[in-house]
């Protein structure tokens, strides 16, 4: 029988919620597209093609990871990170896959370095490794406890940011957050 979770101080919850909301807002903002005048081909197209290149490498890395080709996934994710202009959300995903692949490959120092990059971007990021490997989860949470003083995530607590279907540049973006978990937290 699992032991009940100890109550979490309100200050810690506020910090966690703030980090989650910041990340959710950044992720949402990175997915917004705005109508623009068609630009002439040339340097202005570089960010679009760079973004496509990053996405192509990320897709390759995800596919190779699912196919258990961990060295291939590492190569693809490294290529994604080396493209100039890679977004924070894309870097987070690439580092997460790199860390997971390195754990599977028993390359602990490289896995630690990769997950430290994840925590630098978002100390409260919940790793969503596709296989749900307990080995990877234990590695990540042990490292998180060392690196981030108040980031021991409670697996019983789930936060959902409810984002609008559309937003405007000149207006605030309304966010709603739902917290689900034990009564001592939610």
Notes on the protein architecture:
The structure is a single chain. The protein is mainly alpha-helical and 186 residues long. The chain has one domain: Tetratricopeptide repeat domain (Serine Threonine Protein Phosphatase 5, Tetratricopeptide repeat, Alpha Horseshoe), CATH 1.25.40.10. 54% of the residues lie in helices and 5% in strands. The protein has helices at 10-31, 46-66, 70-81, 88-104, 108-121, 134-147, and strands at residues 158-162, 176-180. It has a two-stranded antiparallel sheet with strand order 1-2. Residues 27-42 have low confidence and may be disordered.
Question: In summary, what is this structure?
Answer:
With 186 residues, the protein is mainly alpha-helical.
Overall outline: globular
Order of helices and strands: HHHHHHEE
Instruction: Calculate the terminal CA-CA distance, rounded to whole Å.
Output: 21 Å
Outline the biggest β-sheet.
2 strands, antiparallel
Rounded mean pLDDT score: 78
What does the radius of gyration come to?
A: 19 Å
Strand runs, count: 2
- Name the CATH class: Mainly Alpha
The main sheet orders its strands as 1-2
Low-confidence stretches: 27-42
Q: Helix/strand/pairing class, anyone?
A: mainly alpha
Q: Count helical runs.
A: 6
Percent range for helical residues? 40-55%
Number of domains: 1
Q: Report strand %.
A: 5-15%
Q: Could you please say which CATH topology applies here?
A: Serine Threonine Protein Phosphatase 5, Tetratricopeptide repeat
CATH architecture label name: Alpha Horseshoe
Give the CATH superfamily: Tetratricopeptide repeat domain
């Amino acid at each position: 029988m699992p032991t009940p979770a100890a109550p979490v101080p309100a200050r810690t919850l506020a910090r966690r919620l703030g980090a989650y909301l910041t990340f959710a807002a950044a992720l949402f903002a990175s997915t917004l597209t705005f109508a623009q005048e068609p630009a002439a081909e040339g340097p202005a197209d570089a960010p679009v093609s760079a973004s496509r290149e990053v996405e192509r490498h990320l897709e390759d890395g995800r596919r190779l990871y699912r196919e258990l080709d961990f060295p291939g996934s590492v190569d693809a994710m490294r290529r994604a990170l080396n493209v100039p202009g890679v977004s924070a959300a894309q870097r987070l995903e690439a580092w997460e896959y790199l860390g997971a692949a390195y754990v599977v490959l028993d390359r602990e120092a490289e896995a630690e370095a990769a997950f430290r990059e994840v925590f630098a971007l978002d100390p409260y990021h919940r790793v969503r490794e596709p296989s749900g490997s307990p080995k990877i989860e234990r590695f990540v949470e042990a490292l998180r406890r060392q690196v981030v003083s108040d980031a021991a995530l409670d697996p019983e607590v789930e936060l959902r940011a409810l984002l609008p279907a559309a937003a405007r540049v000149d207006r605030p973006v309304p966010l709603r957050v739902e917290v689900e978990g034990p009564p001592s937290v939610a």
